[in-house]
Amino acid sequence: MHFIQNIDFASFLDTLVSLTAAFVLGGAIGLERQYRQRTAGLRTNVLVAVGAAIFVDIAYRLAGAEGATRVISYVVSGIGFLGAGVIMREDGNVRGLNTAATIWCSAAVGACAGSDLIMEAALGTVFVLAANTLLRPIVNRINRQPLDTESVEVTNTIHLIAPKNWQKQAMQLLEAELEQARYPARDLDAHAFGDDSVEIEAVLSATGVDGEALDAMVARLVANPYVTQAFWSPSTTD
Question: Where is the signal peptide (predicted)?
């Protein structure tokens, strides 16, 4: 009958206030996400905030402030797995990072509520909403600006396709061409291309690269009997 001994109406009221605050504040964050039809919407953010509050509140009641601090550290690391579930990669683009960060912030708000820091939880909610709403027009305006090519890092990748039984010779040929042109490769990888071929990708370091020089290099590679096809492609990262 330990549950009777654990009944404490003052602690129960304290837990009720903490969970109510987590529910309301997590709902405020989730409502904005739901309005924008994001993957993690109203219910997800409420559950994250309330769940964090429950864990912290239990730890606080059982082990005091030291136990609550320890559980908060677990919440911070553990919520990353949930955030990773909303991050998607499509055609080289990463989506969902903002939603994952919002979930992380909802957990922080819930942890504050579970620690009886209601005012701090409310303040954190205000800043999370401000980041997702007030900063949006600024971000959109920046994204509409034309790219300044001098301030954008250009990464060039050379793609080489060769028969599987000539993979070693083709890779040595590519390495020799890069060394002769003094183009250091940041990454060199080979993977299957169909049933009988492999694709070798050499990602060049972000240095000044002459497109005509790369065209000439690709032409020399294609002329070699070890190589079935070769081409290069640039990409930009900010």
Answer: none
Strands 185-193 vs 197-204: parallel, antiparallel or unpaired? antiparallel
Question: Which of 26, 52, 28 minimizes the C-alpha distance to 115?
Answer: 52
Tell me the three state secondary structure of residue 187. Answer: strand
Contact in structure between 170 and 160 (CB atoms under 8 Å): yes
Q: Mention every residue, 6+ apart, whose C-beta is less than 8 A from residue 66.
A: none
| Residue (of 166, 212, 158, 159) closest to 184 by Cα position | 158
Q: Band of the pLDDT at 214, cuts 50, 70, 90?
A: confident
Strands (E), the chain: 88-90, 93-95, 153-163, 185-193, 197-204, 229-237
Helices (H) and strands (E) in the chain, counts: 8, 6
- Residue 37 is classified by DSSP as T
190 residue type, one letter: A
Quote the pTM value.
0.57
Task: Compute the mean pLDDT over every residue in the chain, rounded to the nearest whole number.
Answer: 82
Could you please report the per-residue DSSP string of 84-132?
HTT-EEETTEEE-HHHHHHHHHHHHHHHHHHTT-HHHHHHHHHHHHHHH
